[in-house]
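As promised in the previous annual report, we have extended the structural survey to additional targets. Below is the entry for Methylmalonyl-CoA epimerase.
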Amino acid sequence: MNKIEHIGIAVKDLKKANKLYAQLFGEAHYKVEEVASEGVNTSFFKVGENKIELLEATNKDSAIAKFIEKKGEGIHHIAFDVDDIEAEIKRLKSEGFKIINETPKKGADNKLVAFLHPKSTNGVLIELCQEIK
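The corresponding structure token record, generated without further manual editing, is:
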């Protein structure tokens, strides 16, 4: 793993959250993107060398809708940049981590992504991200 790629925050209302975080960071989001396969709209902010991803559910069955219903708005996941996502999945699986997505899928912000189950990471949802070239 190279670095923290972004921190994902679940929100109920993306427009309101974009306004709040723009005030907080002193700068507007740089990108809004729908990830239909996950049932979310995302918005990205750049904060120094770090990124924050806001996630709003687009349907009541999405993982984000279920997360908010259970836990409320807040930090949803921490994403890490990797050079070779398939090798990293294999490595982590061999170390005993439970992998949610053993085959990477297309995510937001031009990334291939895979998630580690929070039951194997002390309750933290971990996302692996590899830039699509």
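The chain has one domain: 3-131. The chain is about 25% helix and 40% strand. These points will be discussed at the next consortium meeting with the crystallography subgroup.
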